[in-house]
Amino acid sequence: MNTLKDSFGRSFPYIRLSITDVCNFKCGYCLPNGYQVDKSDNRTFLRAEEIGRLSKALSELGVCKIRLTGGEPTVRKDFFDIVKLIKSNSGIKKTVITTNGYHLDKIASKIKESGLDGINISIDSLNRETFKKITSHDRLPEILRGIEELQKLNFKNIKVNAVLLRGVNDSEKDFNEWSQFIKNNEIDFRYIELMQTGDNLDYFNKYHVPATKFTDYLNKNNWIIQTLGRDAGPSKNYINSEFKGKFGVIAPYSKDFCKSCNRLRITAKGDLRLCLFGNTGINIRHLMQTDEQIEELKDLILKQLNFKKESHYLELGETGLTKNLSTTGG
Ligand code: SAM
Ligand code: SF4
To answer: Is residue 164 within 8 Å of 123, Cβ to Cβ?
Structure first.
């Protein structure tokens, strides 16, 4: 079997696939004015059959995990059909999603039934007012109810992510609230360091705070760093025997962050992105049209990997094609 490897010796068992750019939230760091149709690009989002073929090609290239993201992936009416297709039609072992959880209480049982292998839910604050300020939506209670539903259904592998924001959710009080949350709850909570994108420079300058603000807290409170599996995400995880859940930190500005890169991205319109912040983004959709094209699709993906760069060069302020993370799925 061919496997996805780049010229720096990194392999890629993990794909992040955006299935829509549409989102109903207005997170200040991502889509502060809400989703806007891109009038310069009239291509539609990938159809379920195209996604089915793509996932088959990827599994034959050694990919074992696909994360469905967006935009908000669950706004797609055929969301569960897509999950079903990936699970039945490809050898992908883990299919997981990242969601803002806006109707999680309503779809929890369908999520369980669909056989999804994990869910990352974005919750920037446990304080209802702060949550509302960041996302422009007063939906925290239903999201938390949705998590309870999932747990009642014995759904495993629930993670919660928050973007760390200076003066908004980065106080010891915030950290203690999350500690309480994971104390008796088998949930991993991770802070993501705010990333600069093409659109959010002012927001970034105002709210960016290094992830060390949180890791200092973890070190002070006896959390111990853990080693990771081959298809693990970008989070550094911390454990503490007094807690059922784990803490984690995603710090894209940290030294050597890109060395452990094991993932590629595909946008909702079928562009392969070698890096969240890269300038390369060739379209591979034309090879998702028939089952006979799967070999050709695999070849094209393999060839493109030779162009993957060593690092994102974010620390130099290079944001590449990324205007905001709703098009590449974060
Ligand atoms: N709508 C879904 C959600 O919010 O979970 C999925 C897509 S969203 C783009 C994926 C993740 O990227 C979310 O956890 C979000 O908080 C994060 N994100 C978006 N913009 C970001 C930025 N500029 N810096 C760091 N994380 C960001
Ligand atoms: Fe939507 Fe997710 Fe972006 Fe928030 S972070 S605006 S929920 S895509």
So the answer is: no
